[in-house]
Amino acid sequence: xxxxxxxxxxxxxxxxxxxxxxxxxxxxxxxxxxxxxxxxxxxxxxxxxxxxxxxxxxxxxxxxxxxxxxxxxxxxxxxxxxxxxxxxxxxxxxxxxxxxxxxxxxxxxxxxxxxxxxxxxxxxxxxxxxxxxxxxxxxxxxxxxxxxxxxxxxxxxxxxxxxxxxxxxxxxxxxxxxxxxxxxxxxxx
Length: 189
What we know:
It is built from 11 helices and 2 strands; from the N terminus they run ααββααααααααα. By secondary structure, the protein is mainly α.
């Protein structure tokens, strides 16, 4: 997916408005530490005034090494592909056979909203799936530190991501999976 997306970008075939916002925001973060753009809301404005996404700072160190919009497209494709690992572990936790687990990983990687979403543009929402899958993985494996870390990471992606964390906490509470932790994380989010 990344190769096709990079070719599309190199051919000046990227038409999505959001990609320009994110490219400019990352360049602003590299220069000043702040995600200011001139195209969002047609004025000089921090992207965080529109969408609060401190998750971008986790990607910023690599941007210093590969200062290109292609870096953003690579990170997104790589991030989505990393979701195969928690899918595999979730399958193992649920007692799936090796073949069924491999099929689930294949379905995840080829699922249109995962693969095709990377082909069109860069967006912070594409990182939600992998982070949510890791959080669910750690819930099933009963690893509180992993749950806390990935709940925090989900919350850094976008201001409305708390909904996913609360939904997982509600599931944890109803299924009696560390009710105290589910209450603490749910209330904190």
